[in-house]
Design a protein that fits this description.
This protein is α+β, with helices and mostly antiparallel strands and 223 residues long. It is built from 6 helices and 15 strands. InterPro entries: DUF4279.
Length: 223
């Protein structure tokens, strides 16, 4: 069944975006398409995700060829009109607990959460190289979204077992890892903002947070 976003179907949203890409009405669309290509399937742009942001409004995330970041568009679905265009960074956010003394099985005994990945010190990593520590990773489903939403989604997951994560933080190195890939359009990458309530949530879990920021893609012309 075709999903309906207020008054537009996914197919109608794709067609609207295809029109903007073929004949840009926004300056950023035009500048972006000079230096990058949007991924297409069956003559329509590939939409990785559509998010309802308010009644009658959605954000659509378009796939960019050979890059992690997205071209994002805001759409008024009642008027069937694009209201803004911008690039959106790719964010990969997870919790990693590591230990040189405990095995991954011993670490998992401290929490009821299910890891997405685990290994124990001594396990073969690649080409006969062994891991120098044990580790377990926790991460919710990853979809195109803002940094703030990604972080809150991870905290929602971890807070399903606050005592377990706190115990991990005592016995292991427990760190929220953030890897963000920005479009290097004009050299101004921006940064991340964490509000006070979110900082309190991180503090309550007794975990640290670490950032790796990457710039990729082509610069806009004349920048």
């Amino acid at each position: 069944m075709t999903k309906l976003y207020i008054k537009m179907t996914v197919q109608q949203i794709k067609q609207l975006l295809a029109q903007e890409l073929a004949n840009p009405t926004f300056g950023l669309t035009q500048r972006f398409l000079v230096v990058h290509r949007i991924l297409y399937e069956e003559d329509l742009p590939v939409i990785l995700r559509i998010v309802e942001t308010a009644v009658g409004f959605v954000t659509a995330y378009l796939a960019v060829e050979k890059h992690r970041f997205y071209l994002a568009t805001g759409i008024d679905t009642t008027a069937a009109k694009i209201i803004w265009v911008n690039t959106e960074d790719f964010h990969d956010i997870w919790l990693r607990a590591t230990s040189e003394e405990l095995t991954s099985a011993q670490m998992l005994m401290l929490t009821s959460l299910t890891p997405i990945r685990q290994y124990t010190k001594g396990d073969i990593r690649r080409k006969s190289i062994n891991h120098s520590h044990s580790a377990i990773y926790f991460q919710p489903d990853q979809q195109p979204d803002t940094f703030e939403n990604h972080l809150c989604n991870l905290l929602d997951l971890l807070e399903q077992d606050v005592e377990g994560i706190q115990a991990l933080a005592v016995q292991t190195e427990c760190v929220i890892r953030v890897a963000s890939y920005f479009h290097n359009g004009n050299g101004m990458l921006g940064g991340h903002f964490i509000d006070a309530p979110t900082l309190k949530r991180i503090s309550n879990l007794a975990v640290s947070i670490d950032f790796d920021l990457y710039a990729e893609g082509n610069s806009y012309l004349n920048e």
